[in-house]
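Instructor's aside before we start: the two examples that follow are unrelated to each other. I chose them only because their records fit on one page, so don't look for a connection. First example below.
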Amino acid sequence: MIGTVLQVAAGGAIGASGRYLTSVAATKMIGHGYPWGTMIVNVVGSFGMGMLVVYLMSKDGGTRYAPLLMTGVLGGFTTFSAFSLDALTIFERGEAMPALFYVLATVALSILAIFIGLSVARGIWA
């Protein structure tokens, strides 16, 4: 168990560093005013998750690298990739409505949660 946690932690450090560097590069190349860096990491992370799922499942013992690469690196790079995989998995099981609910509820509740968090924090520290 501790080995798996260390894999996730190491991968998370790599992924978070990649996210930061991607955001910095996007801002330097494209400029401020739109969250290009966030969009790029979400799209690239989702693409990477799709590639890794197929690749790791095709290799004998490949899933042993999932904690490092999927949860760690891609999780640190963007949790959107995990969200995308979850939504697609539900959809591919033939459950289109639950998949749609998952997507809409996750986005709506996340936006509501950040609004509430901002409001509470502003009430405390403003």
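Example two begins here.
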Amino acid sequence: MSTPDKPQYRAWFESIRDPNERYPLDEIVYTDQSGGLLQVAHDLDELKKTSGEDWKERFKQRSHGNEWPYGSGVWGFKEWVLPQLDNDNVVSMYEGHTNLFWADRYGRQLGVPDLWLKLCGNSHTGSFKDLGMTVLVSMVKEMLAKGRDIPAVACASTGDTSAALSAYAAAAGIPAIVFLPRGKISVAQLIQPVANGAIVFALDTDFDGCMEIVKQVSQQDGVYLANSMNSLRVEGQKTVALEIMRQFEWEVPDWLVIPGGNLGNVSALGKGLDMLLEMGLIRRKPRICVAQAEAANPLYLAYKRDFEVFEPIAARKTLASAIQIGNPVSFEKAVAALRNYDGVVEQASEAELVEASAEADRTGLFNCPHTGVALAALKKLIRRGLVQSDDRVVVISTAHGLKFVDFKVDYHRMQLEGIVPENPNPPIELPADYDTVRSQMLREIDRRFGR
């Protein structure tokens, strides 16, 4: 009796405009010949030699295990990410496996009890960027092992990308360079690449200006580009979609709400969903909402014109600093994902995003401002009737709130410029006297909880 051929899992770079234009994954290339973005494509026929049910079981068995590198929330899906990478070159901190937080109390307040937050900030450097960076830095390590001359890996960043690159490059012993907009990121975000030994440049520009510099050093000086226009990043970030579905036992939620800046995340989740559908692990599509800050909303403006026109903008200052981007690199990929998943785009003002964050924090969460943008957008979808009371909704929380404590402290101190807080909760300063403290304590309990 003959036995089936052992699958030969393969992946390569492919133009999103012309699938016949291909490159090996260890080639230093970021765009196709027309300047369009690339994507990592997989030999689906080989992947389909394993049934959908067998893939589910394989992923389940690997989850949280200790067999290198499959215990990682990214590398547990290795055949769907970088199948040909030598395991010895994987650079991993066992990223992923972030929890789905059932926000039942906050969901009931909004009228959507089946509300969940995917807490991607519960990761090594505190954001979802770890998921893409483990893949990119691992490929760089493999290229170096093969003798490729790469002097350093570099990124432009509004904070989180630089933290992830610096940590993973440090673990691999690879030089890292980061370009940050001076004075436009939090202290917690700045200190991460500094502490990990990266070469840190704080430039007198915004993210888009930093991006132009990093493109130049990659083109002219051979430095490897680590921003999301490098589609290796997307391969790691797409595992958010795979992990959500596995955590729900492959039952598809009705909505995914995603903060959007450079738009690599929405294209990544769309790519993960595409593979799950193609491989038969899920049977229906969720809808997608991309949420943007009103101060940095080029995708929203394009959406209002049915994506017929896209115009980069000068992003204005926003508390959601990581998505303060006026010329998103992954626009084309994001639009494709939105069209494929019956998507919508919403925006949130500064007041809306801070109040949504504060409301959710009062129910036990601790949100970054970008998650506040997504929650504010969700509230608008509910008011518009697009999200129904019986829908299951997953909000992608992109970073840990501890990276943005200044934003929260200033809110509760009532010191946010242009914002009059609706729910401030500053500390109550009193003398250390029992009777005084007791009297104030009882008043506060009664005022806040009606007891």
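The domain at 100-126+233-412 is CATH 3.40.50.1100 (Rossmann fold).
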